[in-house]
Design a protein that fits this description.
Helix 10 packs across helix 14 and helix 11 packs across helix 14. By secondary structure, the chain is of the alpha/beta class. The protein has two domains: about 270 residues, no CATH class; about 200 residues, Spore Coat Polysaccharide Biosynthesis Protein SpsA, Chain A (Alpha-Beta Complex). The protein has a seven-stranded mixed β-sheet with strand order 3-2-1-4-8-6-9, sandwiched between helices. Helix content is about 55%, strand content about 10%. It is globular and about 80 Å long.
């Protein structure tokens, strides 16, 4: 290598190093919306995430080196669980590392430049609900639009309403491929440049199209997803506002061009849908799979962080579990049978973002319950997996736990509260069932029913069945605590640490049990 080549190599290395530092610590020009105002907070979050990473690695390595292999039947699941949560943590930090936001009005575009077809898929929802949705869609201020009500329920009253209100009523003869088939039926018959999908219970605001249509002036944008909002009980006990997902995860995924369709409030470019053969019919619902198909073909997605529709969310445990089970089955079928890492058209970061969906359900469905059961085993058996004194375990575990809690609060702008973890953890049984369903349904789509748009009066036994695993673990935890108090007299550290984790288990699962068995707590509306 001559001197000129050596100097060129050094310059290239220095430039790459500077770019890396700029990316990590947010130096350099802040060109995107909100970048400047978020710079200081991001630096704090990045430093905190580094501390979290160091303490996590230190804890896991120390645990593996000090494990008591005579308890292999507990130690092995424990190490797998800790490792799985660590991998999920790495993905979580990556998602939150830098979030992308957009101005409320989107890019400028010549008014009415594109024609828009508004699709409202309906399947036996009450006319009282659907009629509000249709009238709101007709009231969207954008003039160059056509509203289609896609009825898969053969509802004569709905047809009459559409004819009187001015909406186009569409009914297909063969009800195949669920919602995706319903959308595809009209996709092949209509001609608008863009397709806006609105669920049957979602009331749209007049400015909806005007404020997002400008993104499509960028030729490779195939999908724009807006935020979702719902009419919710006081304090949102089931966490259906999904603030962490819509306010934190989606902007993070948008940064990596991996923002997904959520079904409702999504606008697609017709050419993009035609490029992938229409809405995906492979899964229970079309949204996530269609998004991955679009990204795999090189189309770009945008997440617009503004809610333009307001709808109805489940308010009791049966509908809640059914909806979340359905979402998890779709992501898990993709994880097992259409894994993003085997998609050649996706970038590496897109692959990680799609992998995250399925892996999250596996971690909460399989590995989280291990943490519920270990303190029960320890208090009954008086066995512990670590060779070192328990005060050392507490000293190593505490920084990891503390940094994790602080990071979640700061990096999610205080939206990731303990209640959100309780909601997610309370669905572990539904996720476990979804894992089995996805594993045994590679080619066949599992059976499901559309989530009810009105509150159901489910019986006590149905609600009890939903929380039986939670009740069993909680009862065992209470009995184990009592047994430990009576039988463990000479090891205060052991007793204290395992009681702490048993109480943590009871606290985590207690919310799900109470809301399942006492749905009247949900009646207090704001």
């Amino acid at each position: 290598m001559n001197k000129n080549d050596e100097n060129t190599s050094k310059i290239g290395f220095m430039k790459n190093a500077e770019e890396f530092i700029d990316r990590v610590f947010e130096h350099g020009p802040m060109r995107r919306f909100r970048d400047s105002e978020m710079k200081k907070e991001r630096i704090k979050e990045h430093l905190l995430s580094i501390a979290l990473f160091v303490t996590a690695v230190n804890y896991i390595v120390w645990t593996i080196l000090n494990i008591r292999w005579e308890y292999w039947y507990v130690a092995v699941p424990f190490i797998f669980a800790e490792t799985a949560f660590f991998l999920l943590l790495l993905m979580w930090v990556d998602i939150l590392w830098k979030k992308r936001y957009h101005r409320r009005t989107g890019p400028p575009v010549t008014k009415e430049a594109y024609s828009v077809d508004v699709f409202i898929p309906v399947c036996r929802e009450p006319l009282e609900i659907v009629s509000r949705t249709v009238l709101a869609a007709l009231g969207i201020a954008y003039q160059n639009k056509t509203v289609y009500v896609l009825d898969d329920g053969d509802d004569a009253l709905l047809k009459e309403f559409c004819e009187s209100s001015g909406a186009n009523y569409i009914k297909r003869s063969a009800h195949v491929n669920r919602k995706a088939g319903n959308l595809n039926f009209e996709l092949g018959r209509s001609h608008g440049d863009m397709i806006l999908t609105i669920d049957a219970d979602q009331v749209a605001r007049p400015e909806m199209i005007d404020e997002i249509i400008g993104y499509f002036s960028i030729s490779k944008v195939g999908l724009v997803q807006t935020k979702q909002s719902y009419i919710l009980p006081k304090d949102d006990p089931w966490g259906n506002s999904d603030e962490v997902f819509y306010d934190e995860m989606m902007p993070g995924k948008d940064q990596d061009n991996a923002a997904i369709s959520c079904g409702n409030g999504a606008m697609y470019r017709r050419k993009a849908l035609e490029d992938i053969g229409g809405f995906s019919t492979w899964n229970l619902v079309e949204d996530v799979q269609t998004s991955m198909e679009l990204h795999d073909r090189g189309w770009t997605s945008v997440y617009h962080h503004e809610a333009y529709t307001e709808g109805i969310a489940p308010v009791e445990v049966v509908s809640q579990v059914k909806q979340r089970w359905q979402w998890s089955v779709d992501s898990l079928r993709m994880f097992f049978w259409d894994n993003p890492f085997f998609r050649k058209g996706l970038t590496f970061r897109q692959k990680v973002q799609y992998f995250h969906f399925g892996f999250n359900y596996i971690v909460f469905g399989v590995f989280l319950p291990i943490f519920f059961l270990i303190p029960i085993w320890a208090l009954f058996s008086h066995g512990f997996m670590i060779q070192e004194p328990l005060w050392k375990y507490a000293l190593i575990r505490a920084p990891y736990f503390t940094f994790y809690v602080i990071f979640n609060v700061m990096a999610t702008e205080h939206t990731h509260k303990f209640k959100i973890f309780q909601v997610q953890a309370g669905l572990f049984a539904a996720y476990f069932d979804a894992i089995l369903t996805a594993l045994f349904n590679r080619r066949r789509i599992p059976q499901y029913k559309v989530t009810e748009k009105v509150a159901l009066q489910t019986g006590f036994m149905s609600r009890l069945f939903m929380c039986l695993p939670h009740l069993l673990i909680t009862i065992l935890s209470v009995v184990a605590i009592a047994y430990g108090f009576v039988t463990i007299q000479d090891n205060a550290w052991f007793l204290m640490i395992n009681i702490f984790w048993a109480v943590w288990t009871i606290t985590v699962l207690g919310r799900f049990i109470i809301l399942s068995l006492y749905p009247r707590l949900l009646v207090r509306w704001t």
